[in-house]
Write a structure and sequence with these properties.
The protein has 242 residues and is an alpha/beta fold. It has one domain: Rossmann fold (3-Layer(aba) Sandwich), CATH 3.40.50. It has helices at residues 5-10, 18-32, 37-41, 65-74, 90-98, 111-123, 164-167, 183-195, 211-217, and strands spanning 43-46, 49-52, 80-84, 103-108, 128-132, 144-149, 196-205, 222-228, 234-240. Strands 5-4-3-6-7-9-8 form a seven-stranded mixed sheet, with helices on both faces. A two-stranded antiparallel sheet has the order 1-2. Helix 4 (65-74) runs parallel beside helix 5. It is globular, with a radius of gyration of 19 Å.
C-alpha cells in the first residue's frame, strides 16, 4: 500500500484492494518458505535510518551498532576511514554521517553488494567512495586513520545448525570464514597494520567465541580492548597501530 504505519492507526477502516491482496499473498508465501522479512520489504533500520537490503548483502544487526559507537567514541574526527566488507554500506554511511570530516571508503569483493551500498549512500546523502576489492589490497601503506570491519566469521561447521533464514538466504560470502571462522581475521589484521598510520584505529566485530583468538592476532598492537554487547557477549575489538 506504500503507507507508513501511522496511516493505519489513523484509518482503521482501510481495506486492501484486490491487487494489494495479491501482493500480500505473494509476500506471505515467500515468508512461509523462510525468506527474511527484510529481503521481502527490502529495508532494515540501522542506527535510526532505513537502509535498502537485498539478498546480495547481509541484513544489518542491532549488535553492529556497537561497532559504530566504538569508532565514534575513539575517533569522532574520522580522518581517512575504510570499511572492509561494507555490504549494504550501513557502517560506512552511518560513520560518514555521524563522524566529523574525513573521507570514508566502503570496500567489498561483491560488485552486487556495492550497488546496494552506493544506493544507500546516495539516499542518505553520505559521502562514501565504494571500491570493489579484496580486503585492503586497493590501498597503499600508511594511508588510513581508521579501519573498521564486520567481516565473515562463521565457521563452516556451523552451517547445518543455522536458522534457515540465514543459511538459505543471506550471502555465504559475507557469512563464512573457513573451518574456524578466523580466515578473514588472519588476513585482515596484517593488512590493516600496513594500511593504518601509526596510532591508527582498528575496530572489528567479533564472532561468537572468537574474542581470544582475534585478540591474540593483535597482541603487539596498542590499547587492545574487547567490548561486550548488551547481553555481555564479547562483540567488538578495538586497538591502535603501534
Amino acid at each position: 500500500m506504500h503507507r507508513e504505519r501511522v496511516y493505519f492507526f489513523a484509518h482503521p477502516e482501510q481495506e486492501l484492494r484486490e491487487v494489494e491482496w495479491i501482493h500480500y499473498g505473494r509476500y506471505l508465501d515467500e515468508r512461509i518458505k523462510g525468506k527474511p522479512t527484510q529481503y521481502i520489504t527490502r529495508r532494515q533500520e540501522f542506527y535510526g535510518r532505513d537502509f535498502r537490503v537485498t539478498p546480495d548483502v547481509l541484513i544489518p544487526r542491532p549488535e553492529t551498532e556497537l561497532l559504530v559507537e566504538a569508532v565514534l567514541e575513539r575517533r569522532p574526527k574520522l580522518g581517512t576511514l575504510i570499511d572492509v566488507g561494507t555490504g549494504s554500506g550501513c557502517i560506512a554511511v552511518t560513520l560518514a554521517l555521524e563522524g566529523r570530516g574525513g573521507r570514508v571508503f566502503g570496500v567489498d569483493l561483491s560488485a552486487e553488494a556495492l550497488r546496494v551500498a552506493r544506493h544507500n549512500a546516495a539516499v542518505h546523502c553520505a559521502r562514501v567512495d565504494c571500491i570493489e576489492g579484496d580486503l585492503l589490497a586497493a590501498f597503499g601503506d600508511g594511508v588510513a586513520d581508521v579501519v573498521v570491519s564486520n567481516p565473515p566469521y562463521v565457521p563452516l561447521a556451523d552451517l547445518p545448525g543455522m536458522q534457515r533464514e540465514v543459511r538459505g538466504f543471506e550471502p555465504h560470502l559475507a557469512l563464512f570464514a573457513g573451518v574456524s571462522g578466523m580466515a578473514v581475521y588472519e588476513r585482515l589484521v596484517p593488512e590493516a597494520r600496513r594500511v593504518l598510520k601509526p596510532g591508527g584505529l582498528l575496530a572489528l566485530e567479533l564472532g561468537f567465541g572468537l574474542a581470544e583468538a582475534v585478540a591474540d592476532l593483535v597482541r603487539n598492537w596498542n590499547g587492545v580492548r574487547v567490548l561486550p554487547d548488551l547481553a555481555g557477549i564479547p562483540r567488538v575489538l578495538v586497538c591502535e597501530n603501534s
